[in-house]
Write a structure and sequence with these properties.
Blueprint (H helix, E strand, L loop, with lengths): L22 H6 L20 H13 L11 H13 L4 H7 L4 H8 L3
């Protein structure tokens, strides 16, 4: 049992340097203390609550059209006919153009 170390090990915490932790202790020691109250400190409220209202106003004032362009039925039929004329499946066409099969299906269903 030469490999075992049976001596007791004692851990000692290092003592922290004394700092005034409390405002009152600091004032007693004569240190100038400036106190600022936290905005919504200790409350379960978001400090960004008014930003939501500002963002809503910006969105309402927006004039840009955000409509998503769709594939036309003519393109959908042309794609499908070209694929069939080359005797390809949707999966094969998807591999050839490096696109997912679901995208080819969406194009052919003019979504």
């Amino acid at each position: 049992m030469d490999h075992q170390d049976l001596k007791p090990v004692i851990w000692h915490k290092t003592e922290k340097k004394t700092k005034p932790k409390d405002i009152h202790e600091a004032r007693k020691l004569g240190i100038d203390v400036e106190v600022e109250k936290k905005y919504f400190g200790g409350k379960n409220k978001s400090s960004k609550g008014n930003l939501i209202i500002e963002n809503k106003a910006k969105i309402e004032q927006e004039t840009e059209n955000f409509k998503i362009d769709r594939v036309t039925p003519a393109f959908s039929r042309a794609l499908q006919q070209a694929r069939i004329s080359k005797k390809l499946t949707q999966a094969q066409l998807a591999r050839l153009v490096n696109e997912s099969e679901s995208v080819i299906k969406e194009y052919e269903n003019f979504c």
